[in-house]
Write a structure and sequence with these properties.
With 219 residues, the protein is of the alpha/beta class. The chain has helices at 21-33, 57-68, 89-97, 112-116, 127-130, 147-156, 183-191, 202-210; strands at residues 8-14, 38-43, 74-76, 105-111, 132-137, 171-175. Helix 2 (57-68) runs antiparallel to helix 8.
Amino acid sequence: MNGLGARRIGLLGGTFNPVHIGHLRAALEVAEFMALDELRLIPSARPPHRDTPQATAEQRLAMVELAVAGETRLKVDDRELKRDKPSYTVDTLESVRTELAPSDQLFLLLGWDAFCSLPSWHRWEELLLHSHLLVLQRPDADSEAPEALRDLLAARSVSDPLSLEGAGGQISFIWQTPLAISATQIRHLLATGRSARFLLPDAVLAYIQAHDLYRAPHA
């Protein structure tokens, strides 16, 4: 099924409302640094922790597909949009795992804030049964992990992400200088009639304009 060796696959979930250069640059840097065979962006349908996005699930998926077109290492995985229940990460990992060889390595990418909130996630202790965790940490992040995660970190963390072994079960940190771009900022610009160019791919911006997304409600 997987040719000569174990495949290395990364997963990056999010609302991508809309997808922007910050998401894409972080994904590409990790894919290159970790020598991943592919990194999948997984738009969430009904994120349990967020309010309903302004763009539809289908529109957010279309924008991510436009954003990664032509970049062979980045793929789009739409499995969460096919579910009729909230997008729980553990369900996604279980689903992906069934399609892989036992030796294939799976890496779940999480920002530092998301990692710190893990104890509030559905069946969060089971995530490491299916994948490694790669935590993207800003160089200026001096906050400590919550107490609920300290024992887990002591038992499972590996200092060098390139030395993660096996199909899953370990945690490592990748230091990144993320681009100071947020989807909230982009939506605000668009809602107030200002340009969001160079914050997201031109193809995504053209899609937003063509579908009249993120405009302020007309009086």
